[in-house]
Amino acid sequence: MSGEARLMWDEGVTRYDFGPGHPMDPLRLDLTMRLVEAFGLDRHIEVVAAEPAGEAALGLVHQADYLAAVRRASVEPRDADERMGLGTPDTPAFPGMHEASALIAGQSLAGAEDIWRGDVRHAVNFSGGLHHAMPSAASGFCVYNDAAIAIARLLELGAERVAYVDLDVHHGDGVQTAFWDDPRVLTVSLHEHPRFLFPGTGRPEESGGPAAPGSAVNVALPAGTSDAGWLRALHAVVPELLTEFRPQVLVTQHGADTHFEDPLAHLTLSLDAQRAAAEACHQWAHEHADGRWLALGGGGYAIIDVVPRIWTHVVAIAAHRPIEPATQTPEEWRSAVYARTRESGPQRMTDGRRPSWRGWEAGYDPADEVDRAVLATRRAVFPARGLLPEH
């Protein structure tokens, strides 16, 4: 390995902009990078700008007619094809949409390639994690599925086992779809139950195609799930699966929309629980994938108080320079936040919680909704992987 960690960043990713009033405000990306710099993390992690993903790379996941439709809408947004999810309220067309989307995908793609070549152990692209985009349609604010493209490229380069763990509040449906029948990819999504939330998929019985039973794993959690239950569910499912699957690369998606301040969903996690999950992913990469870890962003719509802090924690963890939760946010960053938004930025890198959880070995509680959700997932998937569902 020539380096430990790389942050994939190009200012051009902030041109992924659906316009005023849209929840996916690119300011969240800019404020995150400014916080990374304010903490001096850019001195401890190599910051690299990659080229946009080309047609061949995008075509690893997306169909040619869809790519052509995105290009057309990118030139003339009024020509967007709503049948392909373009020009909708969720995913409005905008000038330069193809270029901005391809640039985001290019960061994830290059990070994956760098990891596979052994140039670095870890790579972070917090502008990525656009996990809803389908092979032939945009969906849920996502135009190109950078996570799926990065995984497909790893397979093309010779990877035999890639694990994907999605921590967004919404189901990682696009990545699941891309590898539904491919036993080389294990997709795990921990999300709010689909009866409450977009995209309406991600039930435990969605567990992989005929050629890949048990390769899709869905933990559908009840609305209101908070730190202890969410972390219990994560640790009750992921470590055993990674031990059995033996991934060569771990790809994780760190959507920040599980937070209690997020306006678009109904889980109630703290920043501290999100940080604990990022630390666990880092540990799992070292334990199960020789340290090969690609960490992506995702959703997150509390763009001042939450998103910059959690993704800065992810960058710091990848750089092996973790930030103590009680650390004060730099005054220069808070000043920049106020200058841009006329709002005060958060004072510390914590919500003041110390999350803890009961391990699954402590026993199953049939009266607990989270435990019932976990057991449903284990029963749907674990036997197909030769694991015991209730132990």
How is this structure best described in words?
With 391 residues, this protein is of the alpha/beta class. The chain has a single domain (3-385), classed as Histone deacetylase domain (Arginase, Chain A, 3-Layer(aba) Sandwich), CATH 3.40.800. The protein is 36% helix and 11% strand. The protein is built from 11 helices and 8 strands. It has helices spanning 27-38, 55-58, 64-75, 97-117, 146-156, 173-178, 227-245, 271-288, 307-318, 331-341, 369-381, and strands at 3-8, 46-48, 120-125, 162-166, 185-192, 216-221, 249-253, 293-296. It has an 8-stranded parallel sheet with strand order 2-1-3-8-7-4-5-6, with helices on both faces. Helix 1 links the parallel strand 1 (3-8) and strand 2. Helix 7 runs parallel beside helix 8 and helix 7 (227-245) runs parallel beside helix 11. The mean pLDDT is 97. Residues 22-316 form the Histone deacetylase domain. Belongs to the histone deacetylase family. It comes from Streptomyces millisiae. Pathway: Ketone degradation; acetoin degradation. This is Acetoin utilization protein AcuC.
Supply the number of structural domains.
1
Helix content: 25-40%
How far apart lie the N and C ends? 38 Å
Largest sheet: 8 strands, parallel
Q: What is the CATH-assigned architecture?
A: 3-Layer(aba) Sandwich
- SSE ordering: EHEHHHEHEHEEHEHEHHH
* CATH topology name: Arginase, Chain A
Please, what is the CATH homologous superfamily? Answer: Histone deacetylase domain
- Kindly report the spatial arrangement of strands forming the biggest sheet: 2-1-3-8-7-4-5-6
Coarse morphology = globular
Low-confidence stretches: none
Instruction: Report the C-alpha radius of gyration, rounded.
Output: 19 Å
The average pLDDT value, as a whole number, equals 97
Going by helix content, strand content and strand pairing, the class is alpha/beta
Helix count from the secondary structure assignment = 11
Total beta strand runs: 8
Q: Tell me what portion of residues adopts beta-strand conformation.
A: 5-15%
CATH class bucket: Alpha Beta
